[in-house]
Design a protein that fits this description.
The chain is mostly beta strands. Strands 1, 2, 3, 4, 5, 6, 7, 11, 12, 13, 14, 15, 17 and 18 form a 14-stranded mixed β-sheet that branches. A 4-stranded antiparallel β-sheet has the order 8-9-10-16, with no helix packed on it. Helix 3 links the parallel strand 6 and strand 7.
Length: about 260
């Protein structure tokens, strides 16, 4: 490969075989079920990198179950936990645990933005597995299959009010080990991602964004996938929306390899 061609390579495999293109990445018709709740700050501390602290105690959290019928990665499910944190005096939503059911969004999320994605079995429906129909939207995460890590559901009771939920940038830890076996990683960065999106409109012109009553259960006490650490202490509500989303390049806000308090 010529040098000029290598310079245009963004991800692997090279020579036009990449799994994902350069951002921005586009998503259309995304369905998001979000449960808003709080849990004990002490329980989540082991999952937060240095300098990232729970914003308060109990700490506000979210569980999001997503269905993306169209994206640059193909159609896929995703689910994650987001913890409201503070870093250097600013509030973020740190994502300590996230799963998907497709390899392309897993690879892109880990390599570009540092999201700690794993493959999982994710199910979603407006009805239960033994119901023909139902008034609740539900989602389940299993890893491995038949080992439930999370179950959630909600009713859509009313249109969500503007500003009802706090909008914050996402924060993730991008951590790559040293291929030569050194104790220090090759990359250790905090990445900020400011999402951009447009909520769909309903037939009357109002946003396709609804609020209601939520239910959330964390399942197996798994050392490999510790979703149980984030079990709800109190549930504050839920929302469901349809939107188009764009993921732009992130921003490196901290490099741990230059942090004298650690190294």
């Amino acid at each position: 490969m010529k040098a000029k061609d290598f310079r245009t390579s963004f991800s692997m495999p090279i020579a036009g075989c990449e799994v994902y293109p350069r951002p921005p990445h586009h998503y259309r018709g995304v369905e998001d079920l979000v449960i808003y709740y709080s849990t004990d700050a002490e329980a989540v501390l082991p999952m937060l990198p240095p300098g990232v602290e729970p914003a308060e105690d109990p700490v506000p959290c979210q569980v999001k179950a997503r269905w993306a019928p169209f994206s640059f990665h193909g159609p896929y499910h995703e689910a994650y936990i987001a913890v409201t944190v503070c870093f250097q005096g600013k509030r973020y939503r740190f994502i300590p645990l996230i799963v998907t059911d497709s390899d392309a969004p897993l690879i892109a999320g880990r390599e570009i933005w540092g999201y700690p994605k794993k493959l999982a079995s994710i199910w979603h429906s407006w009805s239960g597995p033994e119901m023909s129909s139902g008034e609740q939207f539900a989602a389940t995460v299993e890893r491995p299959r038949c080992m439930p890590l999370m179950r959630c559901s909600m009713t859509c009771d009313r249109p969500a009010e503007k500003g009802e939920t706090e909008s914050l940038p996402a924060l993730s830890l991008r951590l790559f080990p040293d291929p030569e076996g050194g104790e220090r990683p090759s990359v250790a960065e905090l990445i900020r991602l400011d999402g951009a999106g447009q909520v769909h409109q309903t037939t009357d012109g109002s946003p396709f964004h609804f609020a209601g009553r939520g239910a959330l259960e964390m399942g197996a006490a798994s050392a490999a996938d510790p979703w149980h650490r984030f079990a709800p202490k109190e549930i504050h509500g839920a929302t469901f929306s349809h939107a188009d989303i764009r993921h732009d390049p992130g921003t490196i806000i901290h490099n741990y390899l230059t942090d004298s308090d650690i190294w």
